[in-house]
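INTERNAL AUDIT FORM
Audit reference: QA-55
Scope: verify that the stored structure record matches its stored sequence.
Auditor: D.O.
Record contents follow.
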Amino acid sequence: ILTHFQVNEDESFHPFKYYNDLGNHAALEAIKQIIKEKPSLQQIVKLAIVGGVFDLNNPDIRKEYLSYRDSGEVGKFFDKYIFEESRRVLATADDYADLWEFLNEYVYSGESHTLGFLFDNNFEGVFDLFLINALLRENPQLTIYLIPKSTNVSNDFSVADIREVVRDILTDEELREEFTPLLKEILKDEKIKGELLQEVSKDLREIISNLLNDNEQQKIFVIHTGPGMQGIDLRRISQELKEVLQEKIELLVTKGQANAECTQTKALNRLHLLMSKGATIASFTGFHQSAKALVVAHLPKGVILGKGAADTTITCPLTMKSFKAPKRN
């Protein structure tokens, strides 16, 4: 049982590290397949949403993944759990409207905007970096504050996970070329850069130096003092994160159910990207707890999920029953 438990570099115990690393490596392999098809930005958004389905802490999914991998057919696994899921339509017309509103205002406009991005789980977090990379490629004028966990919390995506994923990308020429917009910015983070320079080979140190060979203004900022718990408690956050949320960003993009549930405050302009699956989130979205609905919900300041002033009738994709939900536009 203990063979898959690992310790961190500081010798602290991390029971989820083996499966987190396994999932993140799998995500990078999936992305290498995806980029051959040149996915649109809308497709990458949906891939980031469905990435949360792939949870190697689930013993059934882990067993199936390892079986496909060991037989050399891991592509079939990705087809089943990731690619096929990402081909599904978004939950409602409102979700498409909110997605297009976001892309048109913050991305395709080419204008300068500042976003926050609140990460959820490992594996999914790699697809989130893939999305952030695509956003930067489409609009280099974006500034994005990355908000991972400050420390290892279960299978959630942490600062340490970001550094390790960046290191893995750097060692793969195909991924390095794809992720160039992200790498050029995230390597400007002095702590991440400093730790990587100590870990990597001379050749990779030279690659890092070449990626940083510009004098452009920094566009990616990593918050090292993010939440230390699953989800986020806005009453108990670091001063650094508080200043980012209150003073620096125009829009907070949240990933996953817990982050959506924990950021229902009238004080923030939010874009929630999640798969609605489970009883708790169903109380916000109105979908059946087993619906697995792909949700893109823009909640401007003053609006809270489930408490909107105006209601609209939508249909649950699982039960096909209609219900009232807050109109988001």
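Auditor finding: record pair retrieved intact. The chain has 14 helices and ten strands.
Action required: none
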